[in-house]
From TrEMBL:
Superkingdom, taxonomy of origin: Eukaryota
Species: Kwoniella shandongensis
Keyword terms: Membrane, Transmembrane, Transmembrane helix
Membrane-spanning ranges: 43-61
The protein's name: Uncharacterized protein
Length: 156
């Protein structure tokens, strides 16, 4: 037969599936004292863990706030630059509108140009008629001069 050591026998007894055997093996002679930490150490451990977690969460929250503030500041600066550009464009537009109004008030209207053109045409036509009259008069004087020259040459 096979002989087992006492520790192997107790292991076999523990592996037994019958309830009776288990009760025989598990006998209690007395209460085994369980050493638990004193209550003060438990509270200190909890407080230390809570403090560490709180500190880390506050640190990460501050970092996120700093990044968000930086992004917000950059957005505000971009908005300021855009507003400045728009203000410059509006100032230019107002200047151009003032200049346009000044040109409209001092510029000639199409009707004015038509009137001046008509007056110039009348003046030109009048001068042309005077030139024609002057030519006719000069031609008449030439004719009279030629008659006088012919009559005097005949007399001489």
């Amino acid at each position: 037969m096979l002989r087992l050591s006492t520790s192997a026998r107790s292991t076999l007894r523990h592996l037994s599936t019958s309830a009776v055997r288990r009760e025989e093996v598990v006998g209690t002679v007395g209460a085994v004292p369980v050493r638990r930490p004193v209550g003060g150490f438990r509270i200190l451990g909890f407080l230390f863990g809570f403090s560490a977690a709180s500190a880390l969460s506050i640190y990460y929250l501050q970092q996120d706030t700093k990044v968000a503030s930086g992004l917000l500041l950059a957005s505000v600066e971009e908005l300021q630059q855009g507003t400045g550009k728009i203000t410059n464009h509006l100032d230019r537009l107002q200047t151009v509108e003032k200049e346009l109004a000044a040109l409209k008030s001092s510029g000639a209207i199409k009707e004015d140009v038509s009137k001046v053109r008509g007056e110039t045409k009348k003046l030109y036509d009048g001068l042309h008629l005077e030139v024609l009259d002057l030519r006719a008069h000069v031609w008449g004087v030439e004719q009279d001069l030629q008659k006088v020259v012919k009559t005097e040459s005949i007399r001489i």
